[in-house]
Write a structure and sequence with these properties.
Distance between the termini: 24 Å
CATH topology of the largest domain: Elongation Factor Tu (Ef-tu), domain 3
Largest sheet: 6 strands, antiparallel, barrel
Oligomer: single chain
Order of helices and strands: EEEEEHEHEEEEEE
Number of domains: 2
Number of helices: 2
């Protein structure tokens, strides 16, 4: 599963969601998709997706609490303004992430890759990445319709070629 060293162009990547307001000063709970990520300490500009609409925001402060991360956004000064953002998807520019080693990939780099079978025929596209604790899964939208979850491990996943935009998958045992 060699990924090469090409991190690709910068793009906006979803890292979490905003929860309910915390207090009355406009603070919000921030739930990261990857709880082990160190990205919270480097947040500055974010893109918020609220009810299908995109909005840019600046992060004034991120702090920890007993309930998790608490974020303060510039221009969000009270509980009502914070409540309007509850449930917003939080996206960051991919340049914020620490570049992976040559033999590593970041999850967002796999999204959108064409999935090819061992013979090279396209079978689908990576729609998203999921990890429910037992290992990383690729959610693959199949060309013939439907979706399959493919374990990101041998023997199901072979070569990843970021330059070609492909990932080799063997899904024969997963689609019967």
């Amino acid at each position: 599963m060699d990924g090469g060293s090409n991190a690709g162009p910068s793009r906006w990547v979803e890292i979490g969601t905003l929860g309910r307001p915390h207090g009355v000063r406009g603070e919000l709970r921030l739930s990261l998709h990857n709880r082990d990520s160190d990205v919270a300490g480097r947040l500055d500009r974010v893109e918020l997706i609220v009810a299908g609409s995109s909005r840019a925001a600046r992060v004034a402060r991120v702090r920890g609490s007993a309930q998790g991360l608490i974020v303060t956004l510039q221009g969000v000064a009270d509980r009502d303004a914070a409540a309007a953002l509850t449930g917003a998807q939080v996206k960051v520019d991919s340049a914020i992430f620490t570049p992976p080693d040559d033999d590593e990939l970041l999850g967002y780099q796999l999204e959108g890759l064409r999935c090819v079978d061992p013979s090279g025929a396209q079978v689908g596209v990576v729609r998203s990445i999921a990890d429910f604790g037992a290992g990383t899964l690729l959610a693959v939208a199949l060309l013939q319709g439907g979706e399959v979850l493919v374990p990101f491990a041998e023997p199901y996943v072979g070569a990843v070629d970021l330059l070609a935009g492909t990932v080799e998958v063997d899904i024969a045992d997963l689609t019967d």
